[in-house]
């Protein structure tokens, strides 16, 4: 198998054709995505095909269809990069080359600022990672005008995406009203500003990182919304705006459980807890089988609190998520499990994923970290459940 040096993402526009022309003498694969959203889409695909045929380059074309309504630009970017990554994994390639240039860097920066976005880097980096694959941007030192001139000087064909001439998308509006109005000197000034801002932001992030490395998750020690944002990003890989974080900090001053989409965030007794949402667990066992299960394990040995003596008549066992009204009979009497949670000051966010063991008679006989009921206690338990 040929060992390729990279994948060149090529739309057929002047930027990506300039990039392809510069890299066509390497052992590269060319990837083109045709969304069939405009009349000239097939023309651009043909430009790429002709160039690849002329230079004997392997070309892969993907024509995705957006099944659900939503933000086209966001969807298009994701399917495009996922296509590139799939090719990279298939052909054991570690680098994807994309044709972002200087104007794209400025456009991205203005877009980020307009949206009040928090980013690891403002603008664009020469190199970044996407799903474990390196994304390389060799043209960031060139302007869009210079890329087009390179194509004209070297007789490299290209197509103009007419949708970029309209103001249908925010990025297009920024490009036309801001970036295109700047002189080359002004662009350089902005690039220096962005570079300085990134240096300062990296220093700030280092301070935040040092704080979070030893943070005890206490609400009172969060003196700045940036600390909360960086912690949330570490846990969820999702960025939150300043406004969102400021609002969260107000809510977190008292005990509360907050829905963050895929995650739950809770402030409980001045401590913060964050947990990814899980589907309810419901597993049935027809006999005692030691091993690892979804969210728990059954072992032959363990701590006293984890032990239970199971009898043949207990089966089939049901291991499920705790429900309202569940109760267990302990040596000190029968009590609702949620009351035990409250007495032991267990945060609600942890209770949501707590499991119980129910026997064939629909009786709760064990709760992890709480213990077994009176009928299933012995000095020599035959099972230990660990959650």
From TrEMBL:
Q: Which residues bind ATP?
A: 11-16
Membrane in keyword set = no
The species is Faecalicoccus pleomorphus
Please identify the protein, giving its name as recorded.
Answer: tRNA(Ile)-lysidine synthase
Q: Where in the cell is it found?
A: Cytoplasm
Residue ranges constituting the Lysidine-tRNA(Ile) synthetase C-terminal domain according to the UniProt record:
317-386
A single cellular component GO annotation: cytoplasm
Q: Which PANTHER family match?
A: TRNA(ILE)-LYSIDINE SYNTHASE-RELATED
Q: Which GO terms describe its molecular function?
A: ATP binding; tRNA(Ile)-lysidine synthase activity
Chief location of this protein?
A: cytoplasm
Name the Pfam families on file. Answer: ATP_bind_3, TilS_C
> EC number(s) for this protein?
6.3.4.19
Domain observations: The N-terminal region contains the highly conserved SGGXDS motif, predicted to be a P-loop motif involved in ATP binding.
Q: Quote the SUPFAM superfamilies the UniProt record gives.
A: Adenine nucleotide alpha hydrolases-like, PheT/TilS domain
Top-level taxon of the source organism: Bacteria
- Identify the keywords attached in UniProt to this record, alphabetized: ATP-binding, Cytoplasm, Ligase, Nucleotide-binding, tRNA processing
């Amino acid at each position: 198998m040929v060992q390729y040096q990279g994948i060149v993402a090529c739309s057929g526009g002047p930027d990506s054709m300039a990039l392809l022309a510069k890299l066509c003498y390497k052992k590269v694969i060319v990837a083109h995505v045709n969304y069939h959203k405009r009349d000239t889409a097939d023309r651009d695909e043909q430009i790429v095909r002709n160039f690849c045929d002329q230079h004997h380059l392997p070309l892969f074309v993907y024509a995705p269809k957006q099944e659900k309504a939503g933000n086209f630009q966001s969807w298009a970017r994701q399917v495009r990069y996922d296509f590139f990554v799939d090719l990279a994994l298939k052909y054991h390639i570690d680098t994807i080359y994309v044709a972002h240039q200087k104007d794209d860097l400025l456009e991205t920066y203005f877009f980020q600022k307009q949206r009040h976005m928090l980013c690891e880097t403002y603008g664009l980096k020469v190199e970044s990672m996407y799903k474990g694959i390196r994304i390389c941007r060799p043209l960031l030192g060139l302007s869009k005008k210079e890329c087009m001139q390179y194509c004209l000087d070297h007789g490299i064909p290209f197509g103009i995406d007419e949708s970029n001439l309209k103001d249908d998308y925010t990025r297009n509006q920024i490009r036309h009203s801001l970036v295109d109005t700047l002189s080359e000197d002004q662009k350089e000034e902005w690039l220096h500003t962005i570079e300085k801002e990134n240096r300062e932001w990296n220093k700030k992030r280092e301070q935040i990182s040092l704080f979070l490395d030893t943070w005890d998750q206490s609400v009172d020690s969060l003196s700045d919304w940036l600390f909360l944002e960086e912690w949330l990003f570490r846990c969820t890989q999702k960025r939150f705006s300043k406004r969102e974080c400021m609002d969260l900090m107000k809510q977190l001053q008292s005990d509360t459980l907050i829905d963050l989409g895929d995650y739950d965030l809770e402030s409980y007794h001045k401590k913060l807890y964050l947990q990814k949402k899980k589907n309810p667990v419901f597993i049935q066992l027809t006999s005692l089988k030691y091993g690892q299960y979804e969210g728990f394990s059954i072992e032959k040995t363990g701590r006293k609190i984890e032990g239970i003596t199971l009898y043949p008549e207990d089966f089939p066992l049901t291991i499920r998520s705790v429900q309202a009204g569940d109760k267990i009979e302990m040596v000190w009497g029968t009590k609702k499990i949620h009351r035990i949670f409250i007495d032991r000051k267990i945060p609600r966010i942890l209770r949501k994923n707590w499991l119980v063991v129910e026997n064939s008679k629909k009786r709760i006989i064990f709760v992890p970290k709480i213990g077994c009921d009176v009928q299933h206690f012995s000095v020599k338990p035959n099972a230990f459940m660990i959650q």
